[in-house]
Structure formats: C-alpha cells, structure tokens
Design brief:
single chain; 288 residues; alpha/beta; eight-stranded parallel beta sheet; 8 helices; globular; disordered C terminus
Length: 288
Amino acid sequence: MRRSWRLLGLVVLAAVICLAAVTLLRPAVHEAEMAGGTDSTQETKEVQQPKPDTVEGGPQILVLNYHKVSDEFLSLAVAPADFDWQMRYLKEHGYHAITPDELYDAIEGTGTLPDNPVLITFDDGYQDNYDNAYPILKKYGLKGTVFVVTSFLGTRKGYLTWDECREMEKNGMTVASHTVDHKSMTDLTNDQLRAELVESKKKAEAELGHEVKYMAYPTGAYNLHIAQLVREAGYKAAFTIKYGGVSRKSNIYALERVPIFHTEKTNRDFVERIHYTPQFESFGWTKH
C-alpha cells in the first residue's frame, strides 16, 4: 500500500512539472506555429523572452548544429528561406552569436558571455554553407563555425574550398576540424584515429594560418578513449550531436548541441527546440 501511494505521488509530481514546462513554452510554441515550415515572410511576434535557465553547472549555452542550407529535399538540408527566418528570429529575440573561443573561456571560467549566447555550427563543410548560409549570417550580423572534412575541401564537388574558408574567417566565421575523411571514429584503430585527428588539424592549420583548436565527431560517434586521443592531439574541445545545452558540467570533449533539421514544420520545430532545451536541462532531463 505504501508503495502505491509513493508511486501515485511521483506521477502527480511529474504531471505538475510537465504542466509548468508547457505553460512556460506556450508563447514560443504559438509563435512557431504561426511561422510554419517554409513561409519566410511570416512576421515574428514579440514574446516574453525567458531568462536563461540554470542548473548546477551554471547557465545553459545554446549550440545549434546545421549541415546543409539548401533547397534539397533532405532532412539535413534546411531551406535558405527557413534559415533566413531562423537567423532573423535569433536577432530579433536578443540572441548573440559567439565563437568557440568565447564558449570555451566561459566554460573554463576565464571569460564572460553576452545575454542569450548562441554558437551556430555547421558540419561537413558543404558549398552551400558559403553560398547560402554565410550571406544570411552576415545580413543579420551573426557569425558561425564550420567543421570541415579536410580531405573533401577543394577536391570534391559540393564542398567548400580553402579560399572560401579563408574569406569567411576574415569576416568573423570560424573553421575547425571534422577529421580527414569523415569516418565513424568508433570503427577505427588507434593509429587510424590519431591520423584522422592529427592530420586534419595540421592540414587546416597550414591552410588557414592559425591554430585549429576545436573539432566535431563525425556522426557524433565517440567514447572516452577517443576523447582522450582528441585531447592528446592538441584540441581544446570537441562537439558531439548529443542533444542538450552546454554548461560547466559538460565534458569539454563531448559538448552538447541542438540539431536543426528540415521537417514538415521546420521553423516551428526550430523555435520549440531552442526553447525546450533549457527547460529539459533545468528539470534535470537529457534528450538525445
């Protein structure tokens, strides 16, 4: 009987928490529903911007993860019109784009961040990052980070060139490593792992003319042993595709990101994701 009452109490508590989360998120969700999926002409409405939620590790830092910005009918391809809408949403709602260095310094406690910081990242180094995403970021005064597969640049159709990377870096963007060949790292030997990590870092540094301090795991696959090899290769931090916000509790070699995809209602889902993430974290929930 005591167990039944305890179970009932837990159910009631969970219901109260869920109701609170839904209440807090309702303005943002309503606005996203108004936005729809590809209607970039829909004006955003002013909503009460919630203060950054905190957990034991401090404020949650939003890191967005994109891949392609194109009109291709792929889940990884966010349409340029939708990307424009999303960047305008961030700008109009007081978000401030940051660099990986600023994120790292904040986690280490040696730097401060602006209100509503957001790190905007792109994986793989597709040509449309330069053709479509980069002009939109400049349009709204935002900056982003591109994790490039170094052997693809300048050799494969549909991928960036090093000249384009250098140009973007001159205008506030950051270029970092996504390994040499984009192989799943959990399938590689130690020698192969070191080659993917070290050689991509060397190549990018030679092309860009500065130290490359950050990398992102291909497909998000990693383990603690791989993270140790990343550290030994000289990287200061690494990014996964694990859903969540970054805080001082985060593993510096397994930083969380919020993936953004093309969906039936792309912009609605975008707004829900950027507002749900701190709410899940504040309740101690992790969403993968």
